[in-house]
Structure formats: C-alpha cells, structure tokens
C-alpha cells in the first residue's frame, strides 16, 4: 500500500468510528434510562463555557463569535450540563465546517413567556430551502460529497434535536435574511 492509500484508509476508519460514536450517543440520548436525572442548570453559563473552549479554533479559522452578553437574569432549565455542552459543541462544529471564512457566528438569547430562546446565526452560506426541513434527520447531508470531505457524519444535528427535545425544547433551522443558517432553540425555563 502507498502512503496515499494508507492515509485514505486512515481517514475512512476515523470517519466510520465517528459515525459509530454518534449513533451510540444518539441511542443513549433517546433511551429513557440513560444519564442521571436532569438537574437545574443555567444553559447560558454552559454556553459561555463552551464558547471559551472553542474560541481558539474559531479564531484560527477566521470566524468571530459575536455572543449576546446582556444577561438580565440567570434562566434555569432542567437538563444535563454535559448534554448541553454536546449540543453547543455540535452547532459550533457545523459552523467551523461550513461557514464562510472570514465570517462570524452571532449568538443571541431572549426570555419570552417562560421560555429561553437561543439563536445561532452564521455568516453563510445558507442551506437550500428544500434541505431546511431535513437538516435534523439522521444521516442527512445537504451535500454528501462536501460533508464527507469535511468529516461530518450526518448525525450532529440529529443529536442536537434529540438533546433539545429530551429537555422539553424545540429546535428549528432557517436561512437568515442576507446571512447564513440560523438555528433557533427554545427551552422551558423553571419558574424562579
């Protein structure tokens, strides 16, 4: 085998390994018996911690994070903080893979009617309208060849949906006017 063939095989093994791990995570999240019981957690604090862990990678890729810093209260939801980190990490990985560089990722939040709304909006390109409804489907890729080259398994957003729904939330995707992809998540907030 040539070095080029070995590199190709190594990439394929890593890719299949990632798919297996993602499928395992998805089945754990969807299983009723997994994880410790959810705890009261501030999702904005977990978001801030996750942003800090990704900051250097975003900087290296030329993507500026524009995160909403106006926190007028500390909303609390019932969730597993590790799963919230996984949710945010999957969204950030997608931005690193597919957003134009240089570019930015805008993150905004608001509290409305007992729900926390989070919006993640990248600087583009967006997604073809016919793909929007399928983005959260297992193994769906907008462009399978491009996604495969960039290491995506086609499960990241399916995992995001499972995490959000597990904690009583909703997740949707849309194209932001004159920008890129917008992911909107809302969680029910504990009365406080």
Question: Could you walk me through the main structural features you see in this protein, from its secondary elements to its overall organization?
Answer:
The protein is α+β, with helices and mostly antiparallel strands. The chain is built from six helices and seven strands. It has helices spanning 3-30, 43-61, 81-98, 129-132, 144-149, 156-166; strands at residues 39-41, 63-67, 77-79, 103-112, 115-122, 170-175, 181-188. The chain has a five-stranded mixed β-sheet with strand order 2-4-5-7-6. The protein has a two-stranded antiparallel ribbon with strand order 1-3. It is globular and about 65 Å long. 31% of the residues are buried. The mean pLDDT is 84.
Short key terms for the protein model shown above:
192 residues; 45% helix; five-stranded mixed sheet; 7 strands; two-stranded antiparallel ribbon; alpha+beta
Radius of gyration: 17 Å
Structural class: alpha+beta
In the predicted model, the low-confidence regions spanning at least 5 consecutive residues are none
| Overall geometry | globular
Helix content: 40-55%
Secondary structure tally, helices: 6
What is the succession of H and E elements? HEHEEHEEHHHEE
Strand content: 15-25%
List the helices and strands and how they pair.
Layout: H1 3-30, E1 39-41, H2 43-61, E2 63-67, E3 77-79, H3 81-98, E4 103-112, E5 115-122, H4 129-132, H5 144-149, H6 156-166, E6 170-175, E7 181-188
Parallel strand pairs: 2-4
Antiparallel strand pairs: 1-3, 4-5, 5-7, 6-7
């Amino acid at each position: 085998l040539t070095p080029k063939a070995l590199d190709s095989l190594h990439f394929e093994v890593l890719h299949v390994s990632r798919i297996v791990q993602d499928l395992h995570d998805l089945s754990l999240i969807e299983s009723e018996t997994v994880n410790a019981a959810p705890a009261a957690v501030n999702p904005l604090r977990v978001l801030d911690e996750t942003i800090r862990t990704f900051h250097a990678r975003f900087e290296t890729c030329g993507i500026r994070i524009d995160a909403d810093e106006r926190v007028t209260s500390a909303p609390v939801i019932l969730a597993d903080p590790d799963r919230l980190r996984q949710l945010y990490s999957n969204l950030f990985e997608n931005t690193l893979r597919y957003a134009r560089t240089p570019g930015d990722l805008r993150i905004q939040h608001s509290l409305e009617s007992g729900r926390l709304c989070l919006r993640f909006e990248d600087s583009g390109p967006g997604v073809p309208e016919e793909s929007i409804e399928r983005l959260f489907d297992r193994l769906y890729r907008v462009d399978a060849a491009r996604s495969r080259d960039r290491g995506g398994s086609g499960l990241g957003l399916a995992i995001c949906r499972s995490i959000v729904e597990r904690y009583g939330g909703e997740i949707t995707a849309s194209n932001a006017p004159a920008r890129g992809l917008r992911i909107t998540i809302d969680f029910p907030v504990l009365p406080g």
